[in-house]
Amino acid sequence: MVPLVALGVLLFSCTTTAQNTTGLTLEISVASGTRNKTAPYLHGLFFEDINHSGDGGLYAELIRNRAFQGSDVTIGGSSNIKGSHIVASENPLVPWGPTLTGWRAIGSARLSLDVLNPLSTALPTVMRVDIPVDATGEVGILNEGWWGMDIQPQEYTASFYIKPAQAVYSKSLTHITTSLRSNATGEIWAAEEIRVDGPTLSTLEYTQFRSTLFPAKAAPDSDNTFAVTFNASEVAGNSFFVSLVSLFPPTYKDRPNGLRKDLAEVLAEIRPKFLRFPGGNNLEGLTIQTRWQWKKNIGPLTERPGRPGDWSYYNTDGLGYLEFLEWCEDMEIEPLLSVYAGYSLDITNISPANTVPQESMQPYITEALEQLEYAMGSTETKWGALRASHGHPSPFQIRFVEIGNEDFFSSSYYWRFPLFYSALKAVYPNVTFIATQATESSPSGINTAIPAGNMWDMHHYETPQFFKDNFNYFDNWQNASGYGDGVQIFVGEYSVLSRDRPGGVDWSNGVGRFAYPTMVAAIGEAIYGLAMERNPHVVQLSSYAPLLQNFNAYQWTPNFIAFTADTKDTVRSTSYYWQKMFSWYKGTETLPVRNSEGGFDPVWWHAAIDAEETGTLAAGRVYVKLINADTTPHAITLNLDVKVSTVNGTILTNEDEYAFNYRNNATAISPKTFTLDESVIGNGGKQVTYELPGLAIVVLELK
Ligand code: AHR
C-alpha cells in the first residue's frame, strides 16, 4: 500500500564487483572449505485478503455475499480534501453496509434486505424473498458466485437457513430445490429436491437445510450459478427470510469450510516452508475497531460477523484463525502468526494514524496472549478448550510470531514492541518474535530494540536495478545495523513492482508499474534470492507479496498467482516459477565459490549441496544457481574439486524482458529441464563448461 524502506537500504548497500566483460570462471569447493547450513524455512508464503485472494479466492466458498454482511467500497481522493476517503459504496446510504450484490430473483420473486429477523447477532441482515400471489412456475433466488462458479463432476455441499415471514403462511410447501445451472443457457448441471414438511416449518426460528449436488459432467465454462427455488403453486403469496447460503466444492485435504483445492495445490507445489498470516495491512484494520480480530473469526459461521477489510471489500472471515492454522497443518508448513500490536491505518490517511494509547494497551496484549493460547494451549486451558470445541483438540505449534505490520510508519513502535514482546516471550520462551521496524527503517531514527534470537521483517517493493544494487546488502547487515549476530532478517514482503526508470520504483499505476510479474522482474527478485541464500546466518525467511489476484477484482499489481473462478484460468507468474526453482533446489548447505575470472553483474551465482541426501559430504547433489541479467549469452566455466558425471538443469528464460504469463498463455515463461551433453565435462570430470543464455535463471544440478 505504501512506499518502503529505501532510507535504510541506502545506508548499507554496497555496489557489486566489476563487470564481467569476458568469461566467468567459478571455483566450487565441494570436498573442502567451510560450509554453512542453509536457512531451513527460507521460502514461504504471505497471505492476506487482498485482490479477493480469500473471499472469492482461496477460501472455497462459492456463494458471493452469502450473508449480506457488507458492501464493497472504493477509497480514493478528492482534489480539495487531504487524504483518502470513501468515494463510492455499493450500499448508497451506508458505506460497508449490507447489499444484495451477487443475488438475483428467479421468476416473479422480489428480493430485499431485512434487519428485523436476524439469523444471529453476528449476522443481523437477511434476505427477504416475496412471492407474489399471482406467481406461477419456478420462483426463488440465484447467486452468481464470485464472478462465476466452476462446475465439475464432483460433490457440492450446499446449505442455507430459511424462515417463513408470516406466522400464518400457506404451509403447502413440500419441497425446496437446489440446483447448479448455466447462467448463459439455463441448463441445469445438477439439482436436488429437499423434502419439507410445510406445516411443521418453524415460523419462530430459522431452519437449516442441507443439500448435496453431483453434476454428471463438467460445465463448459464457469458462467454458472447456484439457485434455491420453490414451486409457485405451493408458495404464492408467501414470503421467506433467507441467510447464510453456502456452497462448497471438495476442498484441499477435504477440510470442511476449507481451501479451494486447485489453488492450494498450486501453493503447495512450490514446497513452501511457512505461512505468514493474516496481513499485511489487513491485520491492522482501517481503524482500531475494524482490525482483524481473531475472536470474531472462529467457531460457527453464524457467529462470524466479518469486517470491512483494508482492501475495499468486506471480509466474511470464513477463512479465520483456525482455518489458517489448519491450512499450515495440511500443507505441513510453519505458521507465522502476525498479532495486532495497537496500531491501525487511518482511513482518511491523515496523520496521526490510529495508535492505541500506552495506558490502554493491556487489553490488546491480553488479546494476543489469548490468541496464542487458543493455538498452542492444551485442552486444559480456557482458550485451548475452545479450540477443541471447534474440532481441533490437539494443539498447534507456532514458532514465529510477528508483532504488528509495517510499524516503520509509526513513531510509537519503540515502546509498543517491548510491551508485547516481554509479555508474550515470558509465556512462550521458544517462540521467535519478529519486529516490523528496525532502527534503519524508523522514520524518526528512534531505535527499536530487537533482542538477540529474534528477527526484523523488512519489506521491499522495488525495481530490478534496486535488487542488483543491493546484492551485497545482507553480507554485513548484522554488524552494520548494530543489531549484531543474534538478530536475523525476515524478508516478509518483496517483489519487483516496476521497471527500471529514472527516479526508481513507480508506485503509480502508470506504464512503469508492472501489471504482472515479467521476466526482468523474476531476474531482479532472483538476484535478491541469491543474496538471501548466500547469507543464511542473516536471512531466515522470505515471502513474495502479494500472493494471489482474482483477475475480476484486485487492488494491487503485480501478484504471484492470478486466477478466476475457472480453474483453467490460473496463471503461475515468472516470480512464482523462479521461487519454485529456488525452493526445490535450495540445498542443505552452502558451498564456497570463488570467481577466478570475471565478477558479479551481469551474471550472479550461488552454490549449495543437498548433503543430507547421502550423508557424505562429497557425494550429494550440487546446485549451482546462475542468473544472467544481460540479453546476450555468457560462457561459464565451473571448476570443482570433485568429479562430476552428469549435469542436469532447469531454466527460466525469455528473450523479451517485459514478457509475462497470462491467461491462455499461462506457461509461456516456465521452467524447462535439460541435460547437458557429457562433452561439457572436462578435466577428468572436474570441469563443466556451460553457455548461460541471455535473460535466464538457471539451476544446474551436478552429480
Ligand atoms: O502486500 C500489500 C501490502 O503492502 C501489505 O498489506 C502491506 O504490508 C504492504 O504495504
Automatic annotation (TrEMBL):
Q: Which reaction does it catalyse?
A: Hydrolysis of terminal non-reducing alpha-L-arabinofuranoside residues in alpha-L-arabinosides
The superkingdom of the source organism is: Eukaryota
Instruction: List each copy of the Alpha-L-arabinofuranosidase C-terminal domain by range.
Output: 492-696
Establish whether keyword Mitochondrion is in the entry: no
Its pathway is: Glycan metabolism; L-arabinan degradation
Q: Name one GO biological process term.
A: arabinan catabolic process
GO molecular function (one) = alpha-L-arabinofuranosidase activity
Its signal peptide is 1-18
Keyword set for this entry?
Answer: Glycoprotein, Hydrolase, Signal
EC number(s) reported in the record: 3.2.1.55
Q: What is this enzyme's class at the first EC digit?
A: hydrolase
* SUPFAM superfamilies referenced in this protein's UniProt entry, alphabetically: (Trans)glycosidases (SSF51445)
Q: What SMART domains does UniProt report for this protein, alphabetically?
A: Alpha-L-AF_C
Which family is annotated? Belongs to the glycosyl hydrolase 51 family.
PANTHER family listed in its UniProt record? ALPHA-L-ARABINOFURANOSIDASE 1 (PTHR31776)
Protein name listed in UniProt: non-reducing end alpha-L-arabinofuranosidase
Q: Which organism is it from?
A: Sphaerosporella brunnea
